[in-house]
Amino acid sequence: MSNSDKKLTKNERRAAAREQARKMHEARLRREKRNRALTIGGIVVAAVAVVVVVVLIIVNSVRPPSPGPENMAADGIVIGEGLVADRTEGIPVDGEPTPTEQRDDILQIVVYQDFMCPHCGAFEQTNGPTIESLVQDGLATVEIHPLSIMDQASLGSKYSTRSANAAACMAEHAPDSFLSWNTLMFANQPEGQTQGLTDEEMLDFMGQAGADVTPELTECVNSLQFEGWVRDVGERIYENPIPYTVGEEELYALQTPTVLVNGRQYQGPNEDAAVFQQFLQSVQGELENTNGDDDGEDGDGGEEDAEESPEETESP
After folding, report:
1. Residues 54-68: pLDDT tens digits?
2. CATH code for the domain in which residue 103 is found
3. Within a 10 A sphere around the Cβ of 176, how many other Cβ atoms?
4. Maximum distance among all alpha carbons in the chain?
5. Can you list the residues of the chain whose pLDDT is less than 70?
6. What CA–CA distance (Å, rounded) separates 265 from 194?
7. Domain span at residue 50?
């Protein structure tokens, strides 16, 4: 009979069982130690992530307020004859925008837009040439309000905020090149659910539009210098109606594009240039009629005064 066939004694079986139990116990201890290390590591990573988030929130919340960009006193840049922008001071810290003075001797086109908004892109590419021609010739002004309402469509890159900030940087550092840059931005508009244009691409379009891409302009774009202003504008469009509307009905710029011409909202298709041109002609006609009525009233008043004057000077 071989040793392997030999029956174990009671003491030997007990010793073998103890050895097997010891090995199982050691294996369980190793597993527990490994799991405990993984758990602690996970907790540490989660804690670090929470700390980072909290720090970012605190940094953003305590970031000192800064004034708005120059040449955007109305929260938008006004461009007139020769594509030259109106010069204004920036909105002071804790200040409010100053609406542009309304006139009845020229078409005043106001556009609220988001650079990620496809409807804004359709409107600009369809009607941009008409607007630019009218503005160039001094027949109209255009006031462009960049908004950030579509950050969720850029996969976390905050393209709407970055592009609105870049627009503010252009307004401050290269205002007379703004409209050309605006055209290039929409001609190269990114698709939704992408990260959008990079800061470098937006800066490149600034150079193509004729801007002097100085270190100050580059830093303004890269550092999101006017991010706080962009956020303030976003709050204002929800809290306050557009100040330019005609009549008593209040209008909010809660969808893009929102387009007004001398206070009248354009509600036609974004992709039909003929309809928009007809709308412009209609507003122009209203302005001319209003001016004609005013002139007529002044003339009648003058004639009445002339007729009454002899009677007043007549002796009793």
Report:
1. 433 444 444 566 799
2. 3.40.30.10
3. 17
4. 163
5. 1-8, 10-22, 24-25, 27-29, 32, 36-65, 293-316
6. 31
7. 12-62
